[in-house]
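TICKET: design request
STATUS: open
ATTACHED STRUCTURE:
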């Protein structure tokens, strides 16, 4: 059964469920993609690329059907959203004393 046949309010098992708005948006996008790929297949020579697109859309639909109920994402900590400013002042030269130059080895070491 295609995404279109099942409709937005049906689960893979056939029961009616209240669909998460994000899942509903993905389902609508897949319906449109399925329709567009169907037109492509109907109006153009069936090539390996077209067959792969049909297969990929079918797989995406099956993956969406298998998701089921998604738990909500954990609330982001305020500290993750806070901007961190980095000063434009130069770093002190001592900060780089024992570091290695990428691909060149240690500073001041000549072989």
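STATUS: resolved
RESOLUTION: sequence designed for all positions
ATTACHED SEQUENCE:
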């Amino acid at each position: 059964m295609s995404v279109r046949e099942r409709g937005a309010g049906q689960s893979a098992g056939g029961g009616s469920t209240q669909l998460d708005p994000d899942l509903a948006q993905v389902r609508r996008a897949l319906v449109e993609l399925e329709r567009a790929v169907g037109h492509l297949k109907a109006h153009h020579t069936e090539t390996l690329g077209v067959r792969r697109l049909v297969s990929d859309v079918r797989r995406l639909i099956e993956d969406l059907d298998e998701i089921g109920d998604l738990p909500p994402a954990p609330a982001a900590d305020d500290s993750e959203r806070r901007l961190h400013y980095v000063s434009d002042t130069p770093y002190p030269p001592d900060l780089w004393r024992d570091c290695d130059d990428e691909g060149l080895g240690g500073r001041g070491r000549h072989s």
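CLOSING REMARK: The radius of gyration is 26 Å. The beta strands are 100-101, 105-106.
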